[in-house]
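Researcher: Go.
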Amino acid sequence: MKFSIRTSVILLTSVVIYSCNSAGTDSTNSGDSTGRDNTKLSGDPSHTVGDTSHSIASSTTTSSAEQDFINFAVPANTKEILWLKAGLSKGAGDIKEHSSMMLKDHNKLDETVKGWLAKHPDIKIPTVDTTNTVDINNKTGNDWNKAWVDKMVKDHNGLLEQLKKSQSAVKDSSLSKIITSTIPVVESHISMTKMMEQKHGK
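Model: Structure:
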């Protein structure tokens, strides 16, 4: 009987100890699991939000009026130069003449903007894809001339509009001077294109 009581006590004690240990282990595992899940669910989204905020902050830093102008002006002027070279080589006599004059101005603007960019390394220079820029080579004769003139009218009007918007938006005084001095040049180009438009038909 004594043996049985002792045995029972030992067994009961073992059960109690085992139960406590199991409960502790389960609580710990449950806590770890919950912690990991919370870290994963609330951590990943907060990381994403953090990245998004960083991205927005970076965009705000680089997306200035100066950067916006460069993003427009560099590709526009680069492509305009290609169109003027095409006019110089394939256009009618008056188109060749006006292309030559306008090309000098656009090359000068290109060099001026490059000089400004060299002094402002914080401004990113956009990559320009010039593939098939002059896309009227399937035309010939006056059809080509008319298509070229139409393009020049459209591009120069768009350039003038953007210049006037940027003139009041940019804060950098040196870039503002470049824009201000370019406006009358573009206006003179528009006058040239309108003269050619009258000759080669609308």
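Model: Residues 1-62 form one domain.
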